[in-house]
Amino acid sequence: MKQVIAMHGWSGDSTVWAPWERHFSHQGWLWRSGERGYGNRQCCSPNWAEPTSGETSQSMARQRRVVIAHSLGPHLLEPSVLGQATDLVLLASFGRFVPQGSAGRALRTGLRGMQKAIGRPGEASMLRTFLKRAAQPAEVDGLPPGLEQQGLSERGRHYLREDLECLIGTSGLPAGLPKTARVLVVDGTDDAIVAPAASREHLQALKSHLQAAPEQWQLRDVGHALLVPDLLVRVQQWLDHHSRAS
After folding, report:
1. What's the CATH fold of domain 2-99+166-245?
2. For the chain: N or C, fewer Cβ within 10 A?
């Protein structure tokens, strides 16, 4: 069985994975998306599908359990789910988001300001500014429809605040990340959300933690949202290549 659990990042939702799900499903993958419920969708914490009764022990040993997660996404998954992954695709992600020392103080102050804006008159402006920075150097209109179009519920505001606190408090790799997983790290060279120091620290932490070094793709002239039309195809081909090689 080949299956994917996907998780969006802060201020996103599960609809961003719709093109990925269509493509992977056509390639024989079972797809499940996590959802934090910031907008009008129900919160959903996905789990891996159980093996079918007809599967042999040999086929079960060849199972692929792939996590594909963007930005804060890996930190929003249950450690028990992350811990069963055979492969991880980390899209514009990080371990510690706020760099230590003086480099992180201004960023921490800005994040606290974003927290305070949630539920207040400056909320829409704050979200719009964040989305613009996530999209650049592309235009914000290139992002899939999201919170700006849906609006926020009080429950959604609670989760936004809670997950922003999670982001501020990140101090390393997400809990449960298995040492045996094959890992692909995809970063944009023009990411205006994740600090370069955080990206470097993330890659070093993965190299120290994993049994096999992660592979890294650095996409030129691409920002945090990784608005690259063929990225989903390239990721699926990378996963299939590793399936044949194992």
Report:
1. Rossmann fold (3.40.50)
2. C
pLDDT tens figures, 155-195 = 999 999 999 999 999 999 999 999 999 999 999 999 999 99
Taking only the tens place, the pLDDT of each residue in 103-157 is 789 999 999 999 999 999 999 999 999 999 999 999 999 999 888 878 888 999 9
Question: Among all chains, which residue has been given the structure tokens 């979200």?
Answer: 127
CB 165 within 8 A of CB 115: yes
Among candidate residues 111, 32, 39, 38, the one with its CA nearest the CA of residue 78: 32
pLDDT value at 62 more than 90: no
State yes or no: cis peptide before 137, omega within 30 of 0: yes
Expressed in angstroms, the distance from the first to the final Cα of the chain is 15
- φ, ψ dihedrals at 170, nearest 5°: -60, 135
Q: Report the b/e string of 205-218 with b at 16+ CB within 10 A.
A: bbeebbeeebebbe
Token pair belonging to 204: 């070093």
